[in-house]
Amino acid sequence: xxxxxxxxxxxxxxxxxxxxxxMLVGCDVNKLDQKHFDQVKVGMSExxxxxxxxxxxxxxxxxxxxxxxxxxEIWKENEKSITVTFINKKATTVEKxxx
Length: 99
Hints:
- By secondary structure, the protein is α+β, with helices and mostly antiparallel strands.
- The chain has helices at residues 3-26, 34-39, 46-53; strands at 58-63, 69-77, 80-87, 90-97.
- The N and C termini lie far apart (57 Å).
């Protein structure tokens, strides 16, 4: 068997496997659903909420007078979104839209 034929056969076999692996690694499991939203509660830490929902797509942080920190994190997927506001990394409001 020629070297070119071996390379061709290897690529034909390996490329689809590599492509599927990259797609699975790059895709986050759908976490914007009612089940995951119900797990997010006021008073939870920012870290605990990110364990439930993953990393937010948007994070706006503001230092407030007196040293407190306020932030708003947003998770989006198509028309669905979850918005959580935090004071000093503790959730103060949890909202959903598009569900």
